[in-house]
Amino acid sequence: MVMGPEPTAATDLVDPPLYGADDSVAAIEGRSLGRIAWTRLKRDKVAMTGGVVVVLLILMAIFAPLIVKWLGHPPDEQHQSPALLDLTTGGTPRGAFGGVSGQFLFGLEPGNGRDIFSRVVYGSRISLTIAFAAAFLSVAIGSTLGVIAGLLGGWVDNVIGRLMDLFLAFPLLVFALSIVGVLPDRAFGLSGNTLRITMMIFVIGFFNWPYIARIVRGQALSLREREFVDAARSLGARPPYIIVRELLPNLMAPILIYMTLLIPTNVLFEAALSFLGVGVQAPTATWGGMLSDASKYITEPAFIFFPGMAVFVTVLAFNLFGDGLRDAFDPKGTR
Amino acid sequence: MKRKGRVLATTTAVLALTLTGACASSKSTTTATNTAKFNAALNAVYNPSDKKGGTITMAISEDWDSVDTGDTYYGLSWNLLRLYSRSLVMFDPVPGPDGNKLVPDLADSLGVSSDGGKTWTYHLRAGVKFQDGTPITSKDVKYAELRSFDKTVLVNGPTYMNDWLNWPAGYTGPYKQPNVNTDQAISTPDDRTIVYHLKRPFGGFDYFAMLPSSAPVPKAADQGTNGGVNYKKHVVSSGPYKFQSYEAGKGFTLVRNTNWDPATDPNRKALPDEYVIKLGVDATDIDNQLLAGTIQVDLAGTGVQTATLPQVLSNPTNRANADNPTAARLWYTSINPTVAPFDNIDCRRAVMYAADKVGYQNAYGGPLAGGDIATSLMPPIIPGYQKTDAYPDGADHKGDLDKAKAALAACGKPNGFSTNMAYRSDRPKEKATAESLQQSLKRVGISLTLKGYPTGDYFSIDVGKPSFLVANNLGLATNGWAADWNDGFGFLQQIVDGRVIRPSGGSSNLSVNFPAINTMVDEAMSESDAAKRNQDWAAIDKAVMDQAVILPGVWAKAVTIRGKGLTNVFVNEAFGQYDYMSFGAVS
Asked: For residues A273 and B527, what is the distance between their CA atoms, to the nearest angstrom?
């Protein structure tokens, strides 16, 4: 059922001037926004480095058991031989920089002698799972409500707008601490760590939707006045059709960019929750939990260095990649 | 008393001799030393002096329950309050095992019992006065006992007097019932005599008279808006120091009490002119200030922080100014026979054999900061301790896996089983304990799922409730207990008497409830002969171990810094801390 003029491809350009003068000579065939963005992105070395690191991190999380099997020890296994730890001083690792060696690539945890490398690798699973899932949740809720508010306007816009204000004013960290803190052992048919991870995804994801909703609403507000939307409407298209076929394809770029920038925020938030002790249950390795343990050993900088670097590198990589993506999609961009 | 000392000396000889060399054998005379070395203040007075004057600064990271003698249950508080109060009886302020001996303080002798141990009489010393010069009478001591009876007003502190004295039925304390005649519980025939009347015989009543609640409180100072919980803001001193200032949550200063007469007090030297107590100083900062010399005493007395430990033990100068005292404290894990499959004793035995005790010890900080590997409940420094090791776990203490597997087979679970383990989530050492046990029990197929609960709720509404344990399948739970005082009753009664377990929760005893053991406890409590009583408690210790309901972990020790500029430093075994009453200041 074709009902009128509509973008030919999912990533079709919304801003005609970009097709304009300077591209007209070389590009005989019309280049989609996606292709232009990709060309630009490829030229951005910093963003590409970030992207490669992001891919590596995701691979690391997926293949954590294999990596640890080859290069480390089981993440919860304790190595307390006197050759590795000085047990009389409370388990200080022997050797340079927290016991870094070919056996223990990142050294050992003081006290109980667990392999820091294995725990950092396994920690990426929790961090990335929660960060990605929470970002998806935020984006799903935020873009749905944002596009509805933008398209329909009127009282719907008002209600959703006030709802956004309400959520933005919510003391998220306090709420997260209390809800994850009082969580029973079994609820909603889930138990143990599955329940806690689900709960953290919900808390982080559910309260971050207003940011993306505001961006999407603004875009939808301008899009709904465009000719192709008018045309669809005049041919009798209902709002659901307009949202799915006319608006969403044009909103993919900002949504994608925002999601890439939301993930590192979520990584940090998850680390903060774990640091404060409301994350997953021991002994599951998480970066925030490792930082929390390490803070009691301030005289052992190696312990805090590796999980700290893991958080730092992840956040930086996602941010660089997200920034590059935004530049690449920017219609006013010059590159 | 002498006999107690000898039993102790033989059982802890290995420890004591290695630490102090020749000093350990000569206990009758107080030894002294001026040489700064590791453990110098453990069994001798370090840097002895009689020089008066100077200021001693003490610090702690948080406030304790109260400075009110009738409202406090912290060891550090009982140690400190002897500066500004005098109870009937006190622990002898001397180094070594003799510190566990009781000596008269406000009373002129230890208690005299009659009526088969149901009546205990004390006579006050002549010439004792409050800080305002008023003579202290037996009625002030009685009033102090009465006010601490009311646990709705003074909520902290032990309840031994409430439980043991022959109180009138329905008595609620002097705040609500000022006119009730309480002579059937405590009578004061004259101004210098106080008589305690018990419901049933108790041989160790002098330990009750040692409690801070027997320190005199003038009734006039405990009235209206100044009374009850507010009394702590203007405590009336009966000791050598009085409060100059008191700021809740910030600190206080103690200065000399001119109405304290040294002639009435053979125990206190009262050397410094002033004590400054600071509250709310960051714990790691306290360690650094101790090393720098800007404060002299870490009031908490539980040892340096994990971060400071390598700095203290690896640096020869710091190490020479540190001690490694033992506390009468056991860190352990309760094995709950109410949770299947631990209703079968062989499954409990499997845990006892499979546990890696070295891992347990490392979870608490190793042999120095953590403590000694425990093989039974009662810590060796408690008089009457007898060595028992019902579950030998190999020469390396890493567990006897063959015996563990045999026990599992006897239990009908040769391939192991799964259960949950509770720990206090805000206590890193208990988390480390749970993680260590998870690893060591995995070796025989016992799989643990760890469940953290906040300390504040741990005993009151979580694992302290028998029904909660069953509902959450908590087969194991980390636990710990310190003696109220160093004897069998003071350490064991609250954790092995099954009758203290309440369906509503609140008890530290999570797993020990056997009628035979309860009977043994009753017999030990009514025994009047101290030596016989010690044997009874040692037998109870062994009986509990045979039931395999408690996995003992470590007998706690601490690495403490001997503050710079202190004289007369020694560890009082009764507190497992430096004796806060005996210090002098160099300048």
From this structure: 54
- pLDDT tens for B467-496 read 999 998 999 999 999 888 888 998 999 899
Test B439 with A78 for CB contact under 8 angstroms: yes
CA distance B566 to chain A (A): 26
Tell me the pLDDT tens digit for each residue of B530-545.
Answer: 889 999 999 999 999 9
Interface test with A, best of B38, B291, B306 (most A CBs within 10 A): B306
Q: Of B263, B278, B293, which residue constitutes the final position of a domain?
A: B278
Contact state of A91 with B362 under an 8 Å Cβ cutoff: yes
B56 lies in some domain = no
- As a whole number of Å, the end-to-end CA separation of chain B is 38
What length does chain A have? 335
Under 8 Å between Cβ of B135 and B128: yes
Residue A2 in domain: no
Query: Based on the domain organization, do B240 and B155 belong to the same domain?
Result: yes
| Residue A317 lies in domain | 57-329
Question: How far is the C-alpha of B483 from the C-alpha of B494, rounded, in Å?
Answer: 9
pLDDT digit string, tens, across residues B280-323: 898 889 999 999 999 999 998 888 988 888 889 888 999 999 99
Q: How far is B40 from chain A (nearest CA, A)?
A: 19
CB contacts of B368 in chain A (<8 Å) are 88-90
Q: How confident is the model at residue A38 (pLDDT cuts 50, 70, 90)?
A: confident
CB of B483 within 8 Å of a chain A CB? The answer is no
Q: Does B61 lie at the interface with A, CB-CB under 8 angstroms? A: no
* DSSP result, A205-239: HHTSHHHHHHHHHHHHHHHTTSHHHHHHHHTT--H
Does residue B473 sit at the A interface (CB-CB below 8 Å)?
A: no
**Inter-chain CB proximity B309 and A89 less than 8 Å:** yes
**Residue B477 C-alpha from the chain's centroid:** 21
